[in-house]
C-alpha cells in the first residue's frame, strides 16, 4: 500500500494499484459481518482492533492485520485473473470476458485454498460449524468447500473485470458507469515519445525529420498512455474516479457478498457456540 501511495505522489495521478488496494481496504468494514454470517472465527492469539464494535453483528475477534491483508488478497486475485484471462484470450482468440468467465471458478478455488487452506490448517481462523460440506485439518481447523468459496467466484472476478487490467489506457467500466466519459475527449494521435514528422518537398531531401524525443516525467508518462484527455480540472477528475471506484466496490460487495451471506445465516438458522 505504501508503494502504491508513493507511486501516486510521483505521478500525481490515481493509479490502478492504489485505487484497487484502497477500495479493497475500504470494504473491510463489512467483512466482520460476513464472517459472522459464515461462522468464521479468528484466533484470539492475534493482536486485535476494536473499530467495528458498533456493528449489530460481527465475528468475536478482529485481527489487527486483517484490513491490510484484505486489500492484498483481493488485489493479488484481481491481477492473477486478469493476467491469466488476457493470456488465454491471446492464445484462443476468445474475448477477455469469455476467458475470465471460464477461468473464474478454477482460479478462485485454487487461490482460496492456497490462502484460506493454509490459514485454517495453521489455526489462524476456522469455520465452526460452517455451512455445507467442510474439510477438517488434523488440528481441528475447518474450511468450507462450497459455501462460501462458490459464492466468492462471483464478486471478485466481476470487480476485477470492471476495474480492467493495468496499465490504465481508457476509462474502465466503473468510471464509464458513473458518467466520467462526459469529462473527457478523444486524444489526437501523436508519434511515440512525442516526436512529430515534418514533411519536406525539396528533391533529394528526407521525407521527414523526427524531433528529439522528450524526457517524460512520471505524470507525463501516465497521461501519454491514456487514449483520452480530461476536459475539467484534473484534481476534480481524479476525485471523481476515486468516487466511482469507491461506490462500485461498496455497492457491489454488499449486494453480491454480504447480503447473500447474511440471508443464508438467517435462513439456515445454524447456530455456532463461538458466534451466537
How would you characterize this protein structure?
The protein has one domain. Helix content is 50%, strand content 9%. The chain has helices at residues 2-11, 16-26, 31-37, 66-92, 96-121, 155-163, 173-177, 218-225, 234-268, and strands at residues 40-42, 125-127, 134-136, 142-144, 184-186, 197-199, 208-210, 228-230. The radius of gyration is 23 Å and the shape is elongated. It comes from Mycolicibacterium diernhoferi.
Summarize the structure.
The chain is built from nine helices and eight strands. With 276 residues, it is mainly α. The strands form four sheets. A two-stranded antiparallel sheet has the order 1-2.
Helix-strand blueprint:
Layout: H1 2-11, H2 16-26, H3 31-37, E1 40-42, H4 66-92, H5 96-121, E2 125-127, E3 134-136, E4 142-144, H6 155-163, H7 173-177, E5 184-186, E6 197-199, E7 208-210, H8 218-225, E8 228-230, H9 234-268
Antiparallel strand pairs: 1-2, 3-4, 5-8, 6-7
Organism: Mycolicibacterium diernhoferi
Protein name: Spirocyclase, AveC family
Transmembrane segments: 12-30, 64-88, 100-125, 145-164, 242-267
Amino acid at each position: 500500500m505504501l508503494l502504491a501511495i508513493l507511486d501516486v505522489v510521483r505521478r500525481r495521478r490515481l493509479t490502478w494499484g492504489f485505487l484497487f488496494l484502497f477500495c479493497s481496504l475500504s470494504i473491510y468494514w463489512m467483512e466482520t459481518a460476513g464472517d459472522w454470517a459464515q461462522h468464521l472465527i479468528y484466533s484470539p492469539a492475534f493482536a486485535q482492533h476494536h473499530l467495528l464494535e458498533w456493528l449489530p453483528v460481527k465475528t468475536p475477534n478482529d485481527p489487527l492485520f486483517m484490513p491490510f491483508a484484505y486489500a492484498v488478497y483481493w488485489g493479488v486475485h484481481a491481477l492473477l485473473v486478469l493476467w491469466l484471462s488476457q493470456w488465454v484470450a491471446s492464445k484462443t482468440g476468445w474475448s477477455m470476458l469469455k476467458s475470465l468467465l471460464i477461468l473464474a471458478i478454477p482460479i478462485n478455488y485454487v487461490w482460496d485454498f492456497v490462502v484460506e487452506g493454509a490459514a485454517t490448517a495453521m489455526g489462524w481462523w476456522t469455520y465452526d460449524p460452517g455451512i455445507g460440506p467442510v474439510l477438517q485439518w488434523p488440528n481441528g481447523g475447518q474450511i468450507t468447500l462450497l459455501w462460501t468459496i462458490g459464492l466468492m467466484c462471483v464478486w471478485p472476478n466481476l470487480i476485477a473485470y470492471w476495474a480492467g487490467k493495468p496499465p490504465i489506457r481508457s476509462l474502465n467500466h466503473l468510471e464509464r458507469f458513473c458518467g466520467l466519459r462526459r469529462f473527457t475527449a478523444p486524444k489526437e494521435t501523436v508519434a511515440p515519445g512525442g516526436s512529430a514528422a515534418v514533411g519536406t518537398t525539396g528533391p533529394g531531401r528526407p521525407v521527414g525529420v523526427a524531433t528529439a524525443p522528450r524526457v517524460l516525467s512520471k505524470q507525463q508518462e501516465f497521461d501519454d498512455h491514456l487514449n483520452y484527455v480530461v476536459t475539467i480540472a484534473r484534481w476534480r477528475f481524479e476525485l471523481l474516479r476515486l468516487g466511482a471506484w469507491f461506490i462500485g466496490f461498496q455497492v457491489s460487495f454488499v449486494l453480491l457478498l454480504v447480503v447473500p451471506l447474511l440471508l443464508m445465516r438467517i435462513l439456515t438458522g445454524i447456530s455456532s457456540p463461538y458466534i451466537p
